[in-house]
Amino acid sequence: MSVFSGQFFSIIFAVMQYLGELISIGVAFSWTATALLSEFGSKRMGNLTLNLTRMVITLIFSCALFYIVSGNPLPAGASTEAYLWMMLSGLVGYVIGDFCLFQCYIIIGSKFGQLFMTLAPIAAAITAWFTLGQEIRPQAMLAMMVTLAGIAISVLGRGDHHKLSLKLPLAGVLFAIGAAVCQGVGLVLSKIGMDHYEESLTAPLAGWLLPFHANFFRCIAGVIGFTLLMAVREGFTPLGRGLRDRKGMAAAVATTVFGPFVGVGASLLAVQYTAAGIASTLMALTPIIIILPAWWLFKQPITAKSILGAVISVIGVSLFFLL
After folding, report:
1. Residue 252 clears pLDDT 70, i.e. is over it
2. In angstroms, rounded to a whole number, what is the distance separating the alpha carbons of residues 243 and 57?
3. What does the alpha-carbon distance between residue 201 and residue 170 come to, in Å, rounded to a whole number?
């Protein structure tokens, strides 16, 4: 074996040792791309149009994936209880959560939207405490305080008479908080649904494929919910315009790929190669990674406070998984 070949295999071996960490960082970049594309798409097509389009595209991609893997374009059947839990998860996580998330992108931008999404683990921990009886450890309380402190540093400043004041539109902040809470609650509901789904399967299903099957039913709830919202709020004329918007449709397809498919699939792969806490922490780097591209694409200013706040918030998230 030549010296060059030996060095090549040494590099490959060294990379394989940290494969889970590298995949996790890739997931963080994938979710950063999703956030930026979602901001662009929602400003161009409108919140409801983009969300409904994403749900339909996700269902189409899911059917294609199922057909390639099993020869059947539909997911495996399950119990009524499992369907109800997953549909409820889709209603909370997609319909309410993504509506709030995309609306906050329109008002305050994806950079601050992703910063507030660091509140999702807090919402998930509190929901799991209520529904599953999971204990909230003292370390988790510390993580909550650190996360909140990071967000406060980013969005609060001195106002009149040297009092603290909110430097962002209140509506955007409320939508961002609502999105984070719904994501956390939806995550717990999704876990309950997947547990029921797995128990009710008549044939074994590959572990990596289970979330995609469950997500299919969540997307069904998303399609129904966003269709009803669109009918009530603005009618279907904006949907027709959006479908004819090539740039908007390109953003919708790209954000679907980077989110439910590349993002979710890679995140499942990451935890197979490294500890879940390390993977979760690295995947939570999105609020930091997004700062530079948000400035470049949307001219969102970079300040020392925003960087410090994002770093502290990510540290808070990491404490949830590492302590």
Report:
1. yes
2. 12
3. 46
